[in-house]
Amino acid sequence: MAKTSVTKAGDQPKPYHHGNLVGALISATVELIEEHGVEQLSVREVAKRAGVSPGAPFRHFRSKTALLTAVAEQAMDRLTEAVARAVSDVDSTDPAAAFEAIGQGYLEWAMANPTHFQIISSRTLIDFEASSSLRDQNGAIREKMVELLARAQHQGRLAPDVDLDHLVLAARAYVYGLARMAIDGHFPEWHPSEPPAIAVRRALRLFMSQMIVPPRCDLRKPKKSS
Amino acid sequence: MAKTSVTKAGDQPKPYHHGNLVGALISATVELIEEHGVEQLSVREVAKRAGVSPGAPFRHFRSKTALLTAVAEQAMDRLTEAVARAVSDVDSTDPAAAFEAIGQGYLEWAMANPTHFQIISSRTLIDFEASSSLRDQNGAIREKMVELLARAQHQGRLAPDVDLDHLVLAARAYVYGLARMAIDGHFPEWHPSEPPAIAVRRALRLFMSQMIVPPRCDLRKPKKSS
DNA sequence: CTACGGTGTAATCAGTGATTACATGCAAGA
DNA sequence: TCTTGCATGTAATCACTGATTACACCGTAG
């Protein structure tokens, strides 16, 4: 615990070996992106914040992209965990509820961690294909979605002839679009009294009620469910 | 027409004044982004391709961001035109069809011009707020969507208590998500026999049939409509 | 013909990602 | 304990970037 560093100059004689440079670099990267945006990020600034020379990061990450990919992996771990937690909070016998929980968890996390989400979802800043961790976790969520829809379909809550892959694609695109629009600032003109988070949450519910489990034939009946 | 340039060295004595540097710079920018991606873009390369010195572009665009914003404005003009053309091709008395046409036109254009779309939709590469052209055209499309939904609602094809802004947001997020996922390479693992364009097109139709004009109460009846 | 103003050039700046040769100090083996 | 090995960090350096400045060029209005 004596090595989390903070580079308090003048305090310690600045041990030559940092102790945990990799972790410090990743943290510093996230901080700097949150402060000045990902476009402004420079490895030199990351090194400076970690209290280390400009070339030091390249001992651990062969390129800036590799550094950002490491950040993305850490972020993906947290996203996966957040989604899993959201799913575990709902009735496990209700696949549609679990399906919605995935979307909810995903959106909540993305909006609470815009920096991390931005890095994960970019395919130009990071080397997605090179990271089996990223690919695997991404694929796992998709498979989980298909599985849940299959269960819903088996319970008769979905038409038997609906292509699950198509529906999963639609759901992914919807959630992805909502998250990116919110983070990219595409609807700053929304009702001032209503933060994007609420609009996004309601949009997800709208999608679920229409696409996954059609609740009733006509929309005219206002529904005052919980 | 004698000035479209191409910097044929040795041909002409290289007229000191380019003639239409602004246009040439924008074209060169688009070309270079298509070749090496937007991350790799440098103003120097743009200048070189336009056959001009590295500092010349800054006489017309005060910054790299300003150059990209100009590209975005050109792109938005074309997108608006493409959407308008798509709308004009459908029955003008059918607001739902026009609504779908907007989405179709948007998606088709985005997938045919990924570079332009990428620049338009980014809020970090360009200065969106500073360009009234971008803001106006963006807002015009949204207003058109609301208007069409209002007409559909008036025709009884939508529940009278549905919040049109919410529905428009949902539709925008869906289309935006589809376009970005396709362009950002988020589903390269799709059926190899089925290019993303087709998957995206069908996804849009799925959305329309479920969200805008609920065709029937239960999904079980396979529908072989046109 | 001349002065002027818009256009492009050349030189230059600080800052960037990346590489290299070189210091440093921890830890294992004698 | 000494010393050797090696991972870790440093310093110097490279080519390149966005951006600025002073200056050269040239079509044109007077």
From TrEMBL, chains A, B:
Residues 19-79 form the HTH tetR-type domain. The keyword Transcription applies. Keywords: DNA-binding, Transcription, Transcription regulation. It comes from the Bacteria. InterPro entries: Homeodomain-like_sf, HTH-type_TetR-like_transc_reg, HTH_TetR, MT1864/Rv1816-like_C, Tet_transcr_reg_TetR-rel_C_sf. The keyword Transport does not apply. This is TetR/AcrR family transcriptional regulator. Residues 42-61 bind DNA.
